[in-house]
Amino acid sequence: MMTPEPGTQAQFAAALREADLPMPQGLCAWNGPDPARRFEVYRNNVRQGLLGALSSRFPAVERIVGRDFFSLMASEFISVNPPRSPVLLAYGEAFADFVAQFEAARSLVWLADVARLEWARGQAYHAADAEPLAATAFAALAPEALGDAVLTPHPSLSLLSSPFPVATLWAMNADEMPLAPITDWSGEDALIVRPHGLVRVYRLPPGARAFFSALSGGESLGESAETALAAMPDFDLTAALALLIEAEAFIALHVRETSDAR
């Protein structure tokens, strides 16, 4: 670039995102070829890199809508949501909200929540490692102390609630279960966690979302059970505790003393 005009960097970045914008004035190639041609190659590489990042982060969304539609939608997203970080792992956080407003996908009212679940999976995959709590930690507790147990959530743990069967929709398009007609379009809650190397998605039973949310927020087991029962009278504590152990979603436990109570 020779004697760049004021604002050239902003023009350069905008032209990388918008294929119909001209190359900024003042650019030249060090080895002589037409700089406009080289700029087009660079612009295409940037676009393909960002499309690839979104495709790898939201594969179920792409499978649902098809590659061509996804490329169109992702290209529009790239135009209005350029990366804010050089680390592409951080790119795509706003994609679900964009999908919710994307006119051509308005009939797929549940698609944004599938994207939110996939983003949560990506966040879980890159979360810090931590050794999950062993089931024996609960067995070692005296029965009267169980209600006062406070658990520390795994760094990868997150919860998602949707008015649509989001966990089922994701699973059918991630080869976790066979494709089949969905007859029950009731909402679903999901727990996402990566206690070891593999991210897991659990469809939560009624009331379990409130239970795990309360536990993650620092409430004791007893308090969390009361919170869940208030939200869902038919909450099954036994099933929730079994899932808590199976999912390995917590990493530490301590029994709250009376002086610790809030």
Q: Indicate the structural class.
A: mainly alpha
Helical run tally: 11
Overall spatial form: elongated
Written as H for each helix and E for each strand, in order along the chain, the element string is HHHHHHHEEHEEHHHE
- Order of strands across the main sheet: 2-3-4
Poorly predicted segments: none
* Radius of gyration of CA atoms, rounded to a whole number: 24 Å
The major sheet is characterized as: 3 strands, antiparallel
What does this protein structure show overall?
- With 262 residues, this protein is mainly alpha-helical.
- The protein is 45% helix and 10% strand.
- The protein has eleven helices and five strands, in the order αααααααββαββαααβ.
- The strands form two sheets. The chain has a three-stranded antiparallel beta sheet, with helices on both faces.
- The protein is elongated.
- The model has no long low-confidence stretch (mean pLDDT 88).
Core attributes:
262 residues, mainly alpha, 3-stranded antiparallel beta sheet, two-stranded antiparallel ribbon, 11 helices, elongated
Give the topology.
Blueprint: H1 8-17, H2 35-57, H3 59-65, H4 67-80, H5 95-101, H6 111-125, H7 136-139, E1 149-153, E2 158-162, H8 166-172, E3 188-193, E4 200-203, H9 208-216, H10 221-231, H11 237-247, E5 250-255
Antiparallel strand pairs: 1-5, 2-3, 3-4
Task: Write a brief caption for the model.
The protein has 262 residues and is mainly α.
